[in-house]
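Quick one:
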Amino acid sequence: MEPRPDTAYRHEIRVTWGDCDPAKIVYTARIPWFALDAINGWWVENLGGDGWFQMELDHNVGTPFVRLEMDFRAPITPRHPLICHVWPVRLGETSITFRVDGTQDGKLCFSSRTVSVFIDAAAFSKRTPPDDMRAAIERLLPGAG
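Output:
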C-alpha cells in the first residue's frame, strides 16, 4: 500500500473493554467500524463540520461503499488510544478511495483501503461529487501539494 502523507487526518479512538473478545484483543468486526468512523471524521474535518449524516440529509450526497480491503498487522487492545490516519488516495469521476492506517503505541495495527461511489441520495443513483467537495478532496490527494 502507498506511504502515509504528512497531510493525513488523525482520528483518535478510545478502545474500551467492551470492544474486546475473550482473547483480550479487539473483536475483528470492530476494526472496520473504527476505520469507517475515522473516514467519517475526515469528512467532518474537511467539509466544514459535515459528515455522512449531513451529506445525506442536507446535501443529498451519499457515498456507499463498493469495496473494503483490510490488512491486519498487530492486535488492538484498550491499553493505548488507537490513532487512525486517514487520507484520500484517489478521486475518480464518481468514486473516492480512502486509506486508513490504524496505529497504537507507535505500531501499525491495520491498513485499510475503501472505495465509495458518489450518489444522489434521494434517487440512489450514481453522480459526480459536487464541485466544492471535489475541490476539497483534490487539494488533499497525495502529490497535490
